[in-house]
Specification:
six-stranded antiparallel sheet; alpha+beta
């Protein structure tokens, strides 16, 4: 198939990173500087500017249904669409189905998605022009805006010529990348096409309530600053003055070096122990005011388009196992809403936001109803996503899908049986079962608090080789205090086991916990691992399999009874999943490293590879270990299960507008009486088991509403 390549350079007073591509092309100042293009990999690179004669060869290629390749095809498609709406209506439409995207193909191999980093990672003969990139960043923004609103651009002929050279270079780099990257498999191309359709649909936002929430957040922040000034006798004037707050707390005898999120719980406990109510209130004020989630209200308004919808919120294959990542205001990171604890406050707050109260009265009312306005507003973020006129949301979430898959691949039979019994209505909730096993009691004897601390938290924190640190991090998410867990664990742990664990404290990372608290948490970790011998053994089997595969390129190394296979080939370590899809690790090698597993330093072989760091987003050396491999495999399988349900949902008239982790959100016609596109039917669709997942217990909970309140 002959491919054509193209790349646009544009300009706008809108900030592309802030508003996203869809809103960007709706802005009145947006325009196209030029397009570089070629037909075939060897054809000449041509350049086109608005006002030039049409690029007839390229237009004929598109008109004939030819494939058009770009890096970040969404942006190029929207550029093409903008041109057709602005003086070039005679150009043929460019449907998603005729596009190919090297960014998507790179993502599927866990390679960098930015063209400059990708070219470096692949060592292409032609690299992205860094000096030209700096020029582009200047020319894409206004030179200045006159007092009468006239926008003045960087449009001197020599600058335009240099920008054109840069655009030509991008096409050359893209062509070089295209030659090195395999095409997406037919299934993965179908996934990418669906991703593009979902991003094109977008989701409607409650603009009025968001605007009102922004007013309240601003007033709440001002009040928090005033209260902080009063509490600290003007030593700390604003909640953002963290250094001054730390000094003030230390001066009162409350020890702390930071007021970062992970330290707040301990500071509150110290304040309570000292009976210092002012110190406790000050740190709680800081914690509430520092909620980054409330900043999403402003980000939502930045992205919303004239029709009230926000688009381009998903990043295909944004995580290496294949799951989607969020863009713009990060829908993947919206605070969870507990239906019993949080939802009543959320609904009351939404009612208040839709009154005519002034912002002072409004925040007074929210504070009276919920106690903590900033916390409550944060929980309202999900509900700002609304179904369009005449529509409703039908959503579904896979129930504990990662726990189920981890047990399935490892063959943890007791746990699989427990999941099946629960799904059939003959067994107990798995968090009750897990807590009961740790406590040595029947699930019916587990309290609600124990279900959270010894059932839910261990299940979410320990399945991927996590230990004490992972437990306390997850416990903090659910407001569970380590000391309380440790006390329960001590009562449930045999004395000899307690003493043996206690003795390892000095050689371990204590995470700032005293010896008894650390011992209690570690006892929970040990008990969880003892209850899951196959999962634990799987961590070591995976690590050994990766080392063996990298040490012997071309050798297929099965693991998990053959459900998963490793193969090192063509500069990658591939992990073949039950679905047939692969996870890829670039440039793998076996290195000798020194590690300490609590028994002193030991030298071990370890697989290292090149990957994108999840924190810095930069390309560099990464390390594989059993827990990480397990996490990647489980999350990848969960993604593949969800993808099949997404295809079925689309085919059965559930147009998807968002996917969040293991959750689907569709927007359907709200008709009476209900037809097939209701929650019960979506549940059936989601629970159909893929052919390759025989024996995997899958369950989903579904709902329908006018708002995204799940």
């Amino acid at each position: 198939m002959t491919l054509a390549h193209h790349d646009f350079e544009t300009r706008s007073a809108a900030d592309l990173k802030k508003v996203g591509s869809y809103r960007y092309f709706e802005h009145p100042t947006t325009g196209v500087w030029c397009m570089s293009w070629r037909v075939s990999d060897t054809g000449p690179v041509n350049r086109w500017h608005p006002g030039d004669e049409d690029p007839l060869e390229l237009l004929a290629h598109v008109e004939a249904g030819g494939r058009l390749l770009a890096h970040n095809a969404t942006f190029e498609r929207l550029s093409w669409r903008w041109l057709r709406a602005n003086g070039h209506a005679h150009w043929p439409p460019l449907p998603i189905e005729q596009q190919d995207c090297t960014m998507a193909r790179a993502a599927a191999l866990a390679l960098p998605q930015s063209l400059d980093q990708l070219g470096k990672a692949l060592k292409t003969p032609i690299q992205k022009d860094e000096a030209g990139h700096r020029l582009m960043m200047k020319m894409c923004r206004p030179r200045r805006v006159e007092t009468d609103g006239t926008v003045v651009w960087w449009d001197e002929p020599d600058l335009l010529a240099r920008l054109g050279d840069y655009c030509d270079n991008d096409v050359e780099t893209e062509t070089a990348v295209d030659k090195l990257l395999p095409l997406l498999s037919p299934t993965e191309r179908r996934v990418w096409l669906l991703d593009q359709a979902i991003n094109d649909r977008g989701v409607m936002l409650d603009v009025k309530s968001i605007s009102r929430a922004i007013e309240v957040v601003g007033e709440a922040a001002k009040r928090a600053d005033d209260r902080m000034w009063w509490l600290t006798d003007s030593d700390v004037k604003k909640c953002t003055e963290t250094g001054k707050l730390v000094a003030w707390l230390n001066a009162r005898g409350v020890p702390c070096t930071s007021v970062a999120k992970g330290e707040v719980e301990e500071i509150i406990l110290s304040s309570q122990a000292m009976g210092d109510a002012a110190a406790q209130e000050a740190i709680e004020l800081r914690s509430s005011a520092a909620k980054s989630s409330t900043a999403k209200f402003k980000k939502m308004l930045d992205t919303v388009q004239a029709d009230g919808r926000a688009r381009g919120l998903l990043n295909y294959h944004g995580a290496s196992p294949g799951r989607w990542a969020g863009r713009l205001w990060q829908p993947q990171n919206l605070p969870r809403v507990d239906p019993d604890r949080d939802l009543p406050d959320v609904m009351r707050t939404l009612e208040l936001l839709n009154t005519s109260k002034g912002k002072t009265d409004l925040i007074d009312s929210i504070e009276l109803v919920t106690g903590k306005p900033m916390d409550t507003l944060s929980k309202c973020l999900r509900a700002m996503l609304i179904a369009g006129p005449g529509k409703k949301f039908v959503g579904g979430d896979f129930s504990n899908i990662e726990g189920r898959i981890n047990a399935w691949v490892a063959g943890e039979k007791w746990k699989l049986d427990a999941f099946r019994q629960y799904d059939q209505g003959t067994g107990h909730d798995l968090y009750l079962v897990g807590a009961g096993r740790l406590l040595g009691v029947e699930p019916t004897d587990v309290s609600k608090a124990q279900r959270q601390s010894l059932g839910k938290v261990p299940e979410l924190a320990l399945g991927y080789q996590g230990s004490v640190g992972a437990f306390i991090t997850m416990a903090a998410v659910y407001g569970i205090k380590p000391a309380e867990v440790a006390a329960i664990a001590k009562a449930a742990t045999h004395e000899n086991d307690w003493i043996a664990t206690h003795s390892k404290y000095a050689d371990a990372n204590s995470y700032g916990l005293d010896v008894d608290v650390w011992t209690g948490i570690k006892s929970v970790v040990n008990a969880w691992r003892a209850a899951h011998p196959n999962i634990v053994q799987g961590w070591w089997d995976l690590q050994d399999a990766a080392i063996e595969a990298v040490s012997a390129p071309g050798l297929i190394v099965p693991v998990y009874g053959g459900k998963v296979k490793y193969l090192a080939k063509n500069g990658f370590l591939f992990c073949a999943l039950p679905s047939g899809r692969v996870i890829a690790y670039a440039s793998p090698r076996v290195a000798m490293v020194e590690q300490d597993f609590g028994t002193g330093p030991q030298k071990r072989n370890q697989v290292q590879y090149e990957g994108v760091d999840s924190k810095t987003r930069r390309w560099g050396k990464q390390a594989l270990y059993g827990g990480k491999q397990c996490e990647n495999i489980v999350q990848a399988i969960a993604r593949d299960v969800m993808v099949e349900s997404m295809f079925r949902a689309e085919d059965d008239n559930y147009p998807l507008v968002l996917t969040v982790h293991d959750e689907l959100l569709s927007e359907v016609d709200d008709v009476q009486p209900p037809v097939q596109n209701d929650a019960a039917n979506l549940k059936h669709i989601m629970e159909i088991l893929p052919d390759w997942a025989e024996g995997l217990p899958v369950a989903a909970s579904t709902w329908e509403d006018q708002r995204y309140v799940k």
